[in-house]
Amino acid sequence: MTKSRALILIIEDDVTTRTTLAKVLQKSGFNVIEAVNGRDGLNQFIKHQPLLVLMDAMMPEMDGYETITAIRHYERERAVPILMLTALEDLSSIDRAFEVGATDFVTKPINWSLLSQRVRYAIRSSQIEDDLRRSQAQLNYAQKLAKLGYWEWDAIHDQVSGSDSAFRLFNIPKQDGINLDNFIANVLPQDLAIIQQTIAEASRGQSHIGVSFRVQNPQRGLSHIECIGEVQYDENGQMTHIIGSVQDISRLHKAESMIDYQANHDNLTDIANRSFFTEELSQHCINLKPSQQSAVIIFDVDRFKAINDNLGQQDGDSLLVSLAQRLKRITREGDFIARLGSDEFAVIVRQFQDSKELNLLISRFIQDLKKPFIIHEQELFITYSMGIASYPEDGTTAEQLLRDANIARGQAKQHGGNQFLFYRAEMNAEAKHQLMLENDLRRALENGEIEVYYQPQVDGHTLQPVGAEALVRWNHPKMGIVSPVVFVPLAESTGLIVDIGRFVLMQAIKQLEIWHSMEFNTLRVGVNLSARQFTQSNLIADVQEVLTQTKIPARYLDLEITESFAMSNAEQNINILKSLKAMGVSISIDDFGTGYSSLAYLHSFPIDTIKIDRSFIANLQTKEGQAIARTIIAMADGLSLEVVAEGVEDESQIAFLQEKNCDILQGFKFGKPMRAQQFIDYLTQSKFAKDTP
Amino acid sequence: MTQPIDFDNLNMLKSVIGDELKPILNSYLELTPKLIEQIRQDIAQQDAPNLKIHAHTLKGSSANLGATQIPPLSLQLEDMGRHNQLENAGEVFAEIELAYAQLAQVLQNYIAEF
Fold this sequence. Notes:
The complex is a heterodimer. Chain A is of the alpha/beta class.
């Protein structure tokens, strides 16, 4: 087997050493890319995916340790070997290198005759490790495949490939490039829905699937087929492939009742599945008299994808199983529960006397649902978005009730989750409006309707501008300015926030460059990061790219995350923040004081600044408000954190905050959020006012 | 007097990368005087953090070619920078200048014989 030349990334600031390293490695048959500092190195790493990295320890910008930390965080799965170049006399640096994730070290002065052997050895052992992992997986698979068919679906190009036996089990002549619909053409029509539901669940993040169905075969009659598969996703969470096995289980499940059970029950949680639920609800609606009352509850787990990513697939699954078991326990005897999709559950509340009884039932239900789950001896609190539709007011058929409960659930989610809503007729109109808004938002970026505004921040004592917070606005062509309160949650739920966030970041840096070119070269800009942006893995690469493309030092960029989000997933967030911090950007905690965290706990976060929430500033005329603000400022001071007061609107607030040595002020008193050009005018005026006493 | 460079190391490099060692040596000879000048300024301005970085670079680039005198002298400066004790930096610096002058001469001869 011929291999292309292995690619090696050299990160070293000294020209002579770097060039010598490059030449020696090239002569030894490697391809080489060079980076002049840690930040450049991280960038090249992301771009070229080298097979090995040679890294200097001491460098300006990002040093070697910070760079390794950032690389290890970025790559997540595979560990590319990183050899650290360290001085022989510096033992502590070798310890530190291993601590942050270096694979091995090479001492300086470099022994040139041994270097390429060291490099070759490191690459080979990492490949052996990889191969070992892969062949182990293949072996396991091969054993399972002995009596099974093997199939693979390329979800992007909609193409199915598979073994002869797989095609035989699906009763389709073996062929290349067949699409999924044709591949499953002989599945019994009434079983197609189960397959479609399974695929929909897979695309929503259910990475292990299992489904059984029936295939028609003129010679052999009906055969019962079971498919088990693993789903693969790209870095954006988009499903790319499903790979799996298929087996004829007809003989295993001769008993018809058993197969019914399989078809009607969710195989993870063992409660009813969607098709069973729909069937049951239809039957229930037919049996009910208009004088009787009944209700349908549909709910899902808020931010389940993030919880699942954080827990890992296996623990995520056991959370769903625990949730299903709890549902069984907390519902009444006759009520019917089901799992409709990945984290989506439903309950038929069969009968109750009046709305008072329903309210009581629901509030008890929610209380029970809200209690924490225990995963690995840790309490996990989860919240839900819940919609309720009542029979006969909201509908008398299964279809109507399901639709209405779903709309109400969607509204609950839209309003931030962690709530339940009864369906109201107006919701239909609202849902349509939301849908329209969502469609418009999809085109807003390319139509240039998204604009960034800048709200001045001033020094607490001189009241001179020190920077701005970048705030996103949407100029809707018909509705005018749409509040971020409305469209940001929409952008979050649709994933559009990722593109919008990147756009805001780039615009803010562009303005920062303009300000700095105009002798306002100490100004900084604050950019808000949403939860969704934060949990997607490209954030680090995006920030990295923006910083690489500008000459402005990273410390003038301030990234803001809200306190409640920072705390929601503290462990993982600390790691991402550390990677960002390693690039030199400044980190702020927004809306401080509104969450549950203590300042002392926040200190374990790598942050520079806290922003006191506007509600505390608005309350400064009260003794209580003053005490809170004073405490936050004093504690922040003790922890050497900078404090920004938001929502400053009058002189008495300024006087109070100045007296307490608050570092930076922001609010209408100094300027509302304004367009980029207006902000430049504002800067010029404030400078003029300062220069002409 | 000991040689300012370890010829075994230099010849080893030459045997690995051949003629391309020449531009590397030339770039070392071009860049090092600039680096030494920066070190002079760091000492004059009592700029310990920069002295640490510049001395570290001089140490690394010289050691990797096989220089024998400059690396230990640079390490002394690097440590002085690290501990912010620059009292004796001037003396060490004078030794570095001398050592570099010798090394440059030897390297130029070496290049000429390529």
